[in-house]
Design a protein that fits this description.
The complex is a heterodimer of chains A (366) and B (388). Chain A has helices at residues 47-52, 59-64, 71-86, 92-121, 124-145, 167-189, 193-199, 207-213, 218-221, 229-232, 253-276, 330-335, 338-342, 347-357, 361-365; strands spanning 7-11, 23-29, 32-39, 154-155, 158-159, 296-304, 307-315, 324-328. By secondary structure, chain A is α+β, with helices and mostly antiparallel strands. Chain B folds into 2 domains: 47-93, no CATH class; 96-130 and 150-386, no CATH class. Chain B has 14 helices and 2 strands, in the order H-H-H-H-H-E-E-H-H-H-H-H-H-H-H-H. A two-stranded antiparallel ribbon of chain B has the order 1-2. Classes of the chains: A alpha+beta (366), B mainly alpha (388).
């Protein structure tokens, strides 16, 4: 009697909750999603190819612009991949400062995630509270390297400069208030009935599927797999740090929320340990003026706030720039799991799923 | 007191209409303004006094100077009031875009329906029982005649309010349908389902005051609920108040029930394709509806124009000095103050909680609110039978 057909709808590329320029093609049966395909490429700049045409020192600037919410973590991966390629030993103090800034970056990135995810679900206040604290982290970035978002914080072989005067005070001021701030967010969300209704059991991705799809980071840990590269293959100064890898077994949006909130607490712990155990000494290794590579290839993976970010570099004999450069971007690979999470749910759950993925399109499209 | 002729009573009604329209168009922009301010404070947003010092122009210069003098700049952007004016100007001056494949007539009709339905509800709302004020004798044509506290003191006032408020749904549904676009369609469908579902518990929760006051006349209901019950009507009808206010959130499409326009899912829901003053009418209608819901809630559950709960007025009155004696009387100011408090609650809730999912809203409406509303109605009937 009635014509019954599915409606195809584009969620994005210009849409309030696609975190940039993600386009999700949805087929809807009423409000139920029957088919979901993420379409990417709207922010493609060819970062990898550009880096192949620039010297090893210059490439780092482009890693800032991949996942611009966690630029420091990207810098760290790039610097360490290059150090591995050239066999450079970094001074211990540089390792500590890198770890410190990397954890600050994790906090900043998770705060953005928290804010935007909560805003997608309608809790606008959390967004502004989270950005208030993120501002302090950006101030710390600015004090260290002069820029706030695209930091280019590190150099191959160490750091350009030591910590600025007054840095310690800033860090302690931040740490003193941060646990209260986290409690403030959790007061608004954790036991909120509506928040739980919107997230518990929504967009499940069990451990088996997550591993099969290559999902890493908090998404994987929320499925019960305690895989954290900081623990599994320690880099920088993580082997000397005492921290836990928070996991949950529910594998839903709420579990991912809990994992990330717990990770922020652990990050604050690591920062405290870095400040306490900061060794003295130089921050830069002795390096030649110009780096010329040998025939060599490296893959170096670090734990970025989003998951495993891996840098694959191939060197050429006597070359100034990498022969081949490839990034294993966590956002790109995590995004593959969206159809698995969203299909069969409602359109509002797609938004929750995208939020819990914590994607940055700069990194996915590169 | 002279009996007015027909022409005179028409003129007086026009004066009342004017007063109500003035009230609406004062309260609505102020609510919009208050929403920014209250949300700004709730969310600790940095306003123009903190960030405008980097701006060019007079305000920026003023800001920098005042910071230099060690003071918080008071005048910077005049505390955000120009933003309000700018918003209204923007709505009026912006290009009015009509989608190519829209149903032109319905597209045009929908915002008008929303707006008209929202505003003519006020016809039956009485702000104060009896005479509001008497026109001075020098007033031409209608001098010395009383102006009553409501436009139309009809004996089925509540029925009128509920009936007309329901018409507002058509505005939203038709807007969603006539835009000929996908997101508005989804928004319109959602709102049709949501608002129709929530009409039921809303009407049921308003039936309790009807039972208790044995009247459908707005003024009489308010008077009996305010003076005939202990502590206004809040004690016997606290469930009713919470129910009614919750459904009010759903009826006015505010968080946590802002499904029809759920920003992060449906872009802007039913008014995605609207721009300019057509969008402005939807926007105004939302805020007028909020005022209506607040007015009903404060009249039936919070004592309307009576300041003090039943009993206390009589106790307090002898001690009041003469010029404060109006404190014990019903007064439109108290009514408006209660409306404003409830409007603040709207904003407060918006700043605090997230949004429900569409199916969850329906579940809440049908599985919880309607049964509770029925129980509340039984409770009211029991009070009516045995207590009052």
């Amino acid at each position: 009697m009635f014509k019954n057909e599915e409606m195809e709808i584009n969620l994005g590329p210009q849409h309030p909750s696609t975190h940039g320029v993600l386009r999700v093609k949805l087929r809807l049966d009423g409000e139920t999603v029957t088919h979901c395909r993420p379409m990417i490429g709207y922010l493609h700049r060819g970062v990898e190819k550009i880096c192949e045409n620039q010297s090893f020192f210059q490439g780092q600037v482009w890693t800032d612009r991949m996942d611009y919410c966690s630029a420091v973590a990207n810098n760290l991966g790039w610097a360490e991949a290059n150090e591995k390629l050239f066999g450079i030993t970094v001074p211990r103090r540089a390792h500590y400062i890198r770890t410190l800034l990397n954890e600050f970056n994790r906090i900043a990135s998770h705060l953005i995630w928290l804010g935007t995810h909560a805003m997608d679900i309608g809790a606008l206040t959390v967004f502004l509270y989270a950005f208030r604290e993120r501002e302090d982290v950006l101030d710390i970035n600015e004090a260290f390297c002069g820029s706030r978002l695209t930091t280019t914080a590190f150099r191959i072989g160490g750091l350009r400069e030591d910590l600025p005067p007054g840095f310690e005070k800033m860090v302690h001021k931040f740490l003193a208030k941060f646990s209260d701030c986290l409690e403030e967010y959790e007061n608004l969300l954790t036991e909120n009935r509506i928040w739980k209704k919107r997230t518990v059991g929504v967009a499940r991705l069990n451990a088996e599927d997550a591993i099969a799809l290559g999902v890493t980071g908090p998404m994987l840990r929320a499925a019960g797999v305690a895989y954290d590269i900081r623990k599994a293959f320690p880099y920088a100064a993580y082997s000397e740090m005492d921290f836990e890898v928070p996991t949950r077994t529910e594998a839903d949006t709420y579990a991912r929320y809990q994992v990330r909130m717990a990770e922020m607490r652990q990050s604050a712990r690591i920062i405290q340990q870095c400040m306490d155990g900061m060794p003295e000494g130089p921050v830069m290794a002795k390096l030649p003026k110009i780096l010329r590579s040998e025939v060599n290839e490296v893959y170096h993976a670090t734990e970025s706030p989003k998951g495993e970010i891996g840098y694959y570099l191939v060197g050429e004999k006597g070359s100034l720039n990498p022969y081949r450069f490839h990034v294993r971007a966590p956002g790109f690979i995590n995004l593959q799991s969206l159809p698995k999470m969203a299909e069969g749910g409602l359109i509002a759950d797609v938004v929750a799923a995208i939020g819990s993925l914590d994607i940055v399109l700069g990194e996915i499209d590169r | 007191m002279p009996t007015p002729t027909l022409t005179q009573s028409i003129v007086i009604t026009l004066i009342q209409c004017l007063l109500v329209v003035i009230f609406v168009f004062v309260v609505v922009p102020l609510t919009v303004f208050a929403e920014r301010k209250v949300l700004g404070h709730l969310q600790q947003r940095l306003g123009s006094t903190r960030v405008a010092s980097g701006h060019v122009g007079f305000s920026g210069w003023m800001n920098r100077r005042m910071w230099k003098m060690g003071r918080v700049p008071v005048l910077s952007y005049w505390r955000g009031i120009p933003g309000l004016v700018g918003d209204v100007l923007k709505l009026i001056l912006k290009e009015d875009i009509m989608p190519a494949k829209a149903d032109k007539f319905v597209f045009f009709l929908a915002p008008s329906i929303s707006m008209v339905a929202a505003i003519i509800v006020f016809a039956a709302i009485s702000f104060v029982p009896g005479t509001f004020f008497t026109l001075p004798a020098w007033f031409p044509f209608v001098g010395g005649l009383p102006v009553s506290g409501g436009i139309a003191d009809i004996n089925v006032g509540l029925l009128w309010i509920l009936g007309v408020a329901t018409v507002g749904v058509y505005g939203i549904v038709l807007a969603g349908w006539s835009s000929n676009s996908k997101y508005p369609l989804l928004g319109g469908l959602r709102s049709a389902a949501q608002m129709v579902s929530y009409e039921v518990p809303l009407a049921l929760s308003l039936l309790a005051p009807v039972v208790l006051s044995a009247s459908l006349n707005f003024g009489e209901m308010a008077a009996r609920m305010a003076t005939g019950m202990p502590a206004w009507a809040l004690v016997p009808q606290v469930i009713g108040f919470l129910l009614y206010f919750t459904c009010g959130f759903a009826e006015t499409n505010r968080l946590p029930f802002d499904m029809p326009e759920a920003e992060n899912e449906l872009v802007a829901g039913f008014h995605t394709e609207y721009s300019g003053m057509k969008f402005g009418l939807f926007y105004l209608a939302e805020y007028i509806n909020m005022t209506v819901v607040s007015a009903l809630a404060s009249a039936f559950f919070l004592g309307g124009p009576w300041l003090l709960p039943f009993g206390l007025q009589g106790l307090l009155n002898p001690y009041l000095p003469g010029f404060l004696s109006w404190f014990g009387e019903p007064h439109a100011i108290f009514f408006v103050a209660k409306i404003i408090f409830l409007l603040f609650t709207y904003i407060w809730v918006r700043g605090t909680i997230p949004r429900y999912r569409y199916d969850q809203i329906m579940a809440v409406g049908w599985k919880y609110l309607i049964p509770v509303a029925l129980v509340n109605l039984l409770l009211a009937a029991a009070i009516r039978c045995f207590a009052v």
